[in-house]
């Protein structure tokens, strides 16, 4: 089984009301067998926090450990955080790391899986699967943030 996760976060103001979205797609023998959209919002947050929250919430929905998971995010902060900086942050117990609570939670979830993280350029209209899903996540995350703003 392979799971592909697309994520995005949005914030109206920074800090301000924010929203997040993750699209999870499970494949067996290259056939889509299940799809789920996870979304939510917070009243006072930042864009980076929502980017992280999208991935944390997505990974919480994967119950079996050691799954092959491919993540697509348009957040350099999330992609570089996982691919480049996380080892050093772990070594120093996340001292001085912004959003350390979310990074610690994310690290616990990542340890359970076999994860590959890919950065995708945001707001592309090239009609690829990655662009289409990233744009959908962006739209949903903004809608979630607007719900907070309009309350």
Explained architecture:
The N and C termini lie far apart (41 Å). Strands 3-2-1-4-5 form a five-stranded mixed beta sheet. It has one domain: Ribonuclease H-like superfamily/Ribonuclease H (Nucleotidyltransferase, domain 5), CATH 3.30.420. The longest helix is centred in the last third of the chain and has 21 residues. It is 41% helix and 33% strand.
Element string (H = helix, E = strand): EEEHEHHEH
Distance between the termini: 41 Å
- In the CATH scheme, the class would be Alpha Beta
Structural class from helices and strands? alpha/beta
**What does the radius of gyration come to?**
15 Å
Unreliable parts: none
Order of strands side by side in the largest beta sheet? 3-2-1-4-5
The domain count comes to 1
CATH level 4 superfamily: Ribonuclease H-like superfamily/Ribonuclease H
CATH topology: Nucleotidyltransferase, domain 5
Number of strands: 5
Produce the secondary structure layout:
Layout: E1 2-11, E2 16-28, E3 31-45, H1 47-60, E4 68-73, H2 76-91, H3 100-110, E5 114-119, H4 129-149
Parallel strand pairs: 1-4, 4-5
Antiparallel strand pairs: 1-2, 2-3
Helix pairs in contact: 1-3
């Amino acid at each position: 089984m392979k799971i592909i996760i697309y994520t995005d976060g949005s914030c109206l103001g920074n800090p301000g009301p924010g929203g997040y979205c993750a699209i999870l797609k499970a494949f067996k023998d290259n056939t889509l067998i299940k799809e789920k959209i996870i979304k939510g919002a917070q009243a006072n947050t930042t864009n980076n926090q929502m980017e992280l929250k999208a991935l944390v919430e997505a990974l919480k929905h994967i119950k079996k450990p050691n799954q092959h998971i491919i993540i697509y995010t348009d957040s350099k902060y999330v992609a570089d955080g996982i691919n480049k900086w996380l080892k050093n942050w772990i070594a120093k117990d996340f001292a001085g790391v912004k959003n350390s609570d979310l990074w610690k939670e994310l690290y616990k979830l990542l340890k359970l899986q076999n994860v590959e993280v890919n950065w995708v350029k945001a707001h592309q209209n090239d009609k690829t699967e990655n662009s289409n899903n990233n744009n959908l996540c962006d739209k949903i995350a903004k809608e979630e943030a607007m719900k907070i703003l309009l309350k």
